[in-house]
User: Fold this.
Amino acid sequence: MAINWRTMALSALFASDWGGAWAHGQGLPVSDPREILASDPAAFIQLLDDFRPSPVTSEMKQMVLKSLPLELKGRAVNASNRAKLEGLNPVLRAFQRDAVYEIRVIQGPWATIEIDGRAVLLISEGALGALEADQLRAAVAHEAAHEYVWDEWQRADKRDDWKRLRRLELVCDAIAIVILQQLGLKASSLIQGFEKLTYRNLQWLGSPPNPSRHPTLAERRKFAREVAAWMTGLSRKGAHLRLQPTAVRRDDQPPRLKHSR
Ligand SMILES: [Zn+2]
Assistant:
């Protein structure tokens, strides 16, 4: 759903110099939307634990941060947007990324949310304004899910395999929905958020960014319904992710926010 900041601002550096440095162990063994729906939901949840990607090292994170162009360094956020960002904590903890990601709010009326270098969450002011808190959580869950298919996504991107990229997007949707349900959050927020981001970009850009790389909203809606139905196969005593807290709490610590003044 995001505008590709990597392409816009960071392509040469990341693609040529650091390409190999992003490899981070085995990807998820189930990496096709149909395979997920054919699997046992409890077993899939176990896979998300067993194959959780190791986080980037602090050195790598510093390299990513240093490489951000000035326009991606981040901006101050108003109080209501700050509250939305603070609400991301349970999702970041579920992915065990609360101590990893830096969140940068970037200028722009269009709507983009993107994870860069597995270290920085770039959220445009347009996206932040358009999404409600639950929808933002869902969109960030989708972005964090990208880490599970990171290397494969890079390979598909390199060979312009758009069909594979679209499938990997749906895989990330499935992972996001599983995580949201495990947190007791509404999975429907994911599609509602995508709808808002899409409409916002239609308004500002005239077309969705990178349409051939993303499933259509109709495809996403249909798949999300299938994932929700598949999740009902999880027994009451079914598997749970090894999460820290399992619900959104009022006393959540704020996520790591950085912005320029
Ligand atoms: Zn995505």
